[in-house]
Amino acid sequence: MSDSDLDALRAQRMAELSGGGGNNAEKQQAQQEQMRAQEEMKHSILSQVLDQQARARLNTLKVSKPDKAQMFENMVIRMAQMGQVRGKLDDAQFVSILESVNAQMPQSKPTVKYDRRRAAIDSDDDEDYGC
Question: Which residues sit opposite 89 in a β-bridge?
Fold first, then answer.
């Protein structure tokens, strides 16, 4: 390949990259708009289905355990779309649905491991006897 061929390939590649960059930005913009629309629809459904106390409890749950709150939101939205929810869910119904979400979530117990060997070896004590 000659230098002119390499220059032509570079120019073509740069044109593809620069042209694709604008298209990529448009796709990203459209994707963000779609995500925003989905979030807005989710919030409108939840505001129709949950009463004020249940919304407050959901917001508290979102702060402490976002993955559990996400599962709860999805479950309530599915129930609302299937027509299983009549009226607004109050706090007691919220708790019962949350308990079923807890049963579905994988349980993992935190484990604490102690390394006792490090606690037994203390180099600071050796330096104190040298004085």
Answer: 50
